[in-house]
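Q: How do we represent a protein-ligand complex in a form that can be generated token by token?
A: Start from the inputs.
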Amino acid sequence: MSDSQLWDDVDDYFTALLSPEDEPLAATRRDSDKEGLPPINVTANQGKLLHLLAQLQGARRVLEIGTLGGYSTIWLARALPADGRLVTLEYDGHHADVARRNLAHAGLDRIAEVRVGPALESLPKLADENPAPFDLVFIDADKVNNPHYVEWALRLTRSGSLIVLDNVVREGRVTDAASTDPGVRGTRAALQLIADHPRLDGTAIQTVGAKGYDGFALARVLD
Ligand code: SAH
Ligand code: DHB
Ligand code: MG
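Then emit the structure tokens for the protein with magnesium ion bound:
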């Protein structure tokens, strides 16, 4: 059996046991596929991890950068109380339309708001609204801008907030200090920022599974 078949099988086992998809989550993946969105959403067991992290945070407010069809958004928004708020930023108008439909189908359209545009334009507008601090920020958009997204996350959070960065391994390419790949460079710069910043304390974890070999970074915001 190939490694990746084994990883798929273990993800299927964990997911069926611990994080099965209900109809709105399955519909979101089906609908995203039908609408031509790339299948790069988090897996169900990763989504459940985001959900549990948001609950552990006691999160009332979540910021997501990179919506796609709203799959990770649903896992995160379901961790929030009825008066909670999730803002998710998406560059692509079609992705945003698909996500809005899926969030409405999941009954989350009052909690989750999709804002269209380049996140580096949406973030200063959001900051101008002086929102209450976000308790968790999930960064999962264009990797080249990861250091900027971490900086914005710092501005929009409080001491004790959690920042989660997706796709920090990319088959191990992250270790290549000489890489010219903008995504690798952006992710390395974000990790360096987490390492150096006095208000961040973090780690990074490698993962294998249905999405291959990749990983997450987690950073806690300090005083
Ligand atoms: N979080 C989603 C997957 C996001 S995929 C999930 O797990 O379900 C990355 C998304 O980021 C894509 O939809 C892409 O259009 C969006 N994106 C790319 N560049 C962006 C930018 N500059 N600003 C906001 N979103 C961006
Ligand atoms: C890609 C982006 C993602 O956010 C992800 O989780 C996997 C792949 C990509 O752009 O290829
Ligand atoms: Mg991702």
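Helices lie at 3-18, 23-34, 44-56, 71-77, 93-105, 119-128, 146-155, 182-196. Residues 40, 140, 166-167 surround 3,4-dihydroxybenzoic acid (ligand 2) (CB under 6 Å).
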